[in-house]
Design a protein that fits this description.
It contains 5 helices and no strands. With 97 residues, the chain is mainly α. It has 2 domains: 51 residues, no CATH class; 44 residues, no CATH class. The chain starts with a helix and ends with a helix. The relative contact order is 0.13.
């Protein structure tokens, strides 16, 4: 298990190292795609441990307009809400290119 912790520590250090980097829009898309994968893994842990309150996730899903269609029919989870919001941002960035 300590290898996993070491890997996570290294990943955080690398992300922090580039926190203030300015990127052209095409690199921002790639960055957000990578961060969305990280978010999905973090959300898996949050959901597995039931850390975030379901009422809060439901409110966020509703506030973000994700309570209709396919995302509205799926069981509520932080992975669903957060990764969908990030993907929506990626889609917006791609439209701007």
């Amino acid at each position: 298990m300590s290898l996993m912790i070491d890997d996570l520590d290294q990943a955080v250090a690398l992300i922090k190292k580039h926190r203030y980097d300015q990127m052209p829009s095409n690199r921002r898309v790639a960055m957000w795609q990578a961060l969305n994968q990280i978010a999905a893994e973090l959300c898996y842990r949050l959901d597995d441990e039931k850390i975030l309150p379901e009422d809060g996730l439901t409110a966020l899903r509703t506030a973000a307009g994700l309570d209709t269609g396919l995302t509205g029919a799926m069981p509520i989870s932080s992975e669903l809400v957060i990764t969908t919001l990030i993907q929506n941002h990626i889609d917006k960035l791609q439209e701007e290119e």
